[in-house]
Amino acid sequence: MTVAAAAVHASKIYGKGDSEVRALDDVTVEFHDGEFTAIMGPSGSGKSTLMHCIAGLDELTAGSVLIAGTDLSTLSDKELTVLRRDQVGFIFQSFNLVPTLNAYENITLPLALGGKKPNGEWVDKVVATVGLGDRLKHRPSELSGGQQQRVAVARALANEPHIIFADEPTGNLDSKTGHQILDFMRKAVDELGQTIVMVTHDPVAASIADRIIFLADGKVVDEMREPTPEKVLDRMKRFGE
Amino acid sequence: MKSVLSRKARLFLTSLAVILGTSFLAGATIFTDTLNKTFDTLFAEVFEEVDGFVRSTDVIETDFGGEERARVPISYVERIKAVPGVADAQGFIQTFARIVGKDGEPLGSDGNGPPTFGGTFNTGEIALWAVSEGRAPTNGTEVILDEASAEDGKYTIGDTVKITAAAGSREFTMVGIANYGDVSSPGGATFALFDDVTAMEFLTQPGLVDAILVAGDGTVSNTTLADAIQAQFGPQDRVETLTGDEITKETQDQIGAALDFLGTFLKIFSYIALGVAAFVIYNVFSISAAQRERENALMRAVGASKKQIRRIVLIEALVIGVVGSALGILAGIGISRGLSAMLKAFGVDLPSKGLTVTSSAITATLQIGVIVTLVSAYFPARAAGKVPPLAAMRSTALETIGSMRTRLIVGFTPLLIGIGLVLAVVGGLGAAWIGLAVLLVFSGVLILGPVTSRPLAMAIGAPIARVRGVTGEMARQNAARNPKRTARTAAPVLIGVALVTAVTALAASLRAEVRDIVGEQFRGDYVVSVTSQGFGGLSPLLVDDINEVEGVANATAIGYTPVLVDGNSALTTVVDPATTEGLFELTMLEGELSSLDATGILVEKDKAERESWSVGSDVPLKLSDGTEIAAMVQGIYDSNDFVANTVVSRQLFEGTGVTRFDQQIYIEIEEGTDSATVEAALDAAIAEYGNGKVQSRDEFIDEQANQVNQLLGLIYGLLALSVIIAAVGIVITLLLSVYERRRELGLLRAVGMTRSQVRTSVRWESVITSLIGAVAGVILGLGLGFVIILSLADEGLSNYAFPVGGIVSILILSFIVGVLASVYPAYRATRVDVLDAITTT
């Protein structure tokens, strides 16, 4: 399996001297093509920071991040933006959509920003996968929370990205709707061959992944394959000790 | 912490609108106060040595507070000197004369600039002027110039200087340079000064002076002195004696009246700027109220009353009003300098020394600034109070749009009544209704703004979305997403553009009108003219010389001279009936222009009707030198914009003491004559007098039509500040919108919007907003221009010219304003912290 994205000796330090906080402490981790990875850890463990840095939304203090072989630290702001636009998909916890654009325009936004014509077949497939067919002309304010997140998933998929980052994508949803979203993400990996990295603190959500990376105090402390909710919960409980 | 910071920014932005709005008002006040003070001081200094002022009681008033006074015999000087208490008495002349520069060009501006004077150089006890270099003139070949003129004309002592006056032009030797008070030339006027004998002989008439200046020996008070002098004269002498204080005061008041006119003119534009600023203030408070909805709702939830919330907003407005107005006064000092420079650029060079900031200027500006701010903030404050406590649970700023239907009714009612009134006026209703009609239409349009701004934004944004893709589409949607806000932001642009358009349409119509009339009235091939109407002009001898020029078939002179017609002061057109044929046309209803003689007067139709005069009526005339003439109406002519409402023959002035000038000489050349040769010969004839210029028929018509451009330029300049305030309004709104949308912007940046795309999007949103105001403003402005022209139909204005070029320029300019206004907000938008926006807490 090829590496979709990787962090090498990644460190992120906030503040200086006595007030220094090491959000990431020499993290080296790889994410593989076609794999669904979850990042877990107690709050303050650095999981969001790690995701932001790998996704090119934040800068490392030391070490490097590679996406599709490109070292992000060598890129200008514009090159980084274009990389996010063309090679990365994003799903955030909330406020994922531009309120002035309808569902279809939101889905194709990264493509439109790149001045590209949407690949009709692919977009249709994505839309069908997340089940939004009759809602495409609606504005975000006319959609339920679950529908909004589905649009967000579709947007993340629409530009056929190299890798998708999801930050607590089900955090604001009830468990049933949350499950639907997780199912769509799973399908995207299984049926559409996508690569997803998801930050979550929900053991049930994490158990849908192929692999879980556990973070604590800015360090990778454990890794789990073929997770189940119970196994994850057990592992998480040990953080509290 | 962040909310405090943004609150600071909001306070600053609102204050900026108040500062700009009040600065023009303060600037205009400071400017006119400074001018008044400068002139008051100047005349107080100038007349310091003058204890008495003897002049004729025969006076004819002219436009704008001017007057033409009869002269007094110099022989009175001896009678005055004999009065006990008089130390000295001297003749005084100040009349038209123009200094010709070394390059052959006359000094001073040809148009409406400061006057060009010739006069007496008074010495000894009554020296108004001080010699700063060289010496005073002592005989008929010598002249002394004011410092500024000497410099402008590049003259040094010993040079030969050509000076032109009513009696033609003559060369003098410059023997000195003079200062007036402590300025080099008062009001930018030019002065050529002579000894009294030369001044009389060259400028007026031998034996006659404009007035006699008296210096007392200090033994009696000025009042006693003036009474004693006056006692020397009987009623038949027709003179009056003023004390030095009286003549100082009178001169100050005369200038004051002219300055008041200027002050009022400037104030009109400063109130327009203030009105535009009020809209911006209203907008900023409305947006703040919306953005602080949660904060206010929370306060309501914990028990604050509606009244308390309202009071908080109004107290904030009060602070902003006071601080903004105070800073506006400071900025006004800069504006007053700017006004001075701008008027100078348009040929009105006024001396201003120091800076006069009166306490009344400060209190007036503060009061008006605070009141405008409070009134503008009142409705937003009320809206803030009405926020339901539940709104604390909502997450985004929401500006509710009340019932569209109510708004449509409330908006359309005044709009339709206004349009109805305009139509009624077209149909014959009095023009006095126009003002109300315009007010109703404007109110209607402004009320309908929120209803129309969304469709307008979508329409104007459509081509942009097509060209710029998704960034353009987002700009379009952003401009349309908050119709109330967009309408309030576009309103100041609308007002500015409407006024600019109306003025442009009016000017275009005036030009077309002038072109028609001048073309119809004037049939000749060439014109010699000066544009200094009302003061000085061409020597009456010039027309005779031109008639001698080879190739000239006929030349006729036209002048304007104040005359008392049946006891009323009137500027009267003076013609030479013997030579007008084929050159100067009057549509005669009765009588013939060519048969007008020295005892006759022609009267315009309307005036004849008003006065119940007909051909044969006796009309007593009195000239400015006191000559009385029993004239008779010899003809009636149709109304004509380029001719006064009475016409007399130049023969009427022959043998009188009136110094008269011609304004234009119309020339017809013999057929088959080489135009270049004639032009050269005409130039040579004029050069003898050093004043006036030759123009072909086309050039002359163009110039007459374009005279309106100078005033137009000045009005554009004065409206510029309103446009700047409107632009600042766009900047403020965009900044607040960007702040409000920072999460959205962060999201867009995260999913791949580059900084330049963010900039593009904000820029086009700004352009769309600006163009909404511009398009609506152009339509309203064209209507307004049409209405004004309609109301001037009685004055003979009948053309309505559609200023295509002007409209295109206005739209392009609005586009540029939109682009410029977006620069800073767009920059702020690119600096939005992506992580901040997407991290939900």
Task: Describe, in plain words, how this protein is organized in 3D.
The complex is a heterodimer of chains A (241) and B (841). With 241 residues, chain A is an alpha/beta fold. Helix content of chain A is 35%, strand content 26%. Chain A is built from nine helices and ten strands. In chain A, a hairpin with a 2-residue loop joins strand 4 and strand 5 (70-71). In chain A, helix 5 runs antiparallel to helix 6 (145-158) and helix 6 runs parallel beside helix 7. The longest helix of chain A is centred in the C-terminal third of the chain and has 16 residues, at 175-190. The radius of gyration of chain A is 18 Å and the shape is globular. The N and C termini of chain A lie far apart (36 Å). Chain B contains 20 helices and 26 strands. In chain B, strand 22 and strand 23 (628-637) form a beta hairpin. In chain B, helix 12 crosses helix 18. The model of chain B is unreliable at 1-5 (pLDDT under 50). The chains are: A alpha/beta (241), B alpha+beta (841). The A-B interface holds A 48, 52, 57-58, 77-78, 81-82, 84-86, 90, 92-101, 105, 109-110, 112-115, 155, 167, 171-172 and B 469-471, 473-474, 477-478, 481, 743-744, 747-757, 834-835, 837-840.
Mean pLDDT of chain B: 85
Extract low-pLDDT stretches of chain A. Answer: none
Uncertain segments of chain B are 1-5
| CATH domain class name of chain A | Alpha Beta
Count of β-strands of chain A:
10
Strand count, sense and barrel status of the largest sheet of chain B are:
8 strands, mixed
Task: Label the structural class of chain B.
Answer: alpha+beta
Listing every helix as H and every strand as E from the N terminus to the C terminus, the arrangement of chain A reads EEEHEEHEHHHHEHEHEEH
Q: CATH fold name of chain A, please?
A: Rossmann fold
- Overall outline of chain B: elongated
Instruction: Walk across the major sheet of chain A and give the strand order.
Output: 6-7-8-3-9-10
| Gap from first CA to last CA of chain B | 16 Å
What share of residues are in beta strands of chain B?
15-25%
Overall geometry of chain A comes to globular
- Structural classification of chain A: alpha/beta
Helix content of chain B: 40-55%
Strand content of chain A: 25-35%
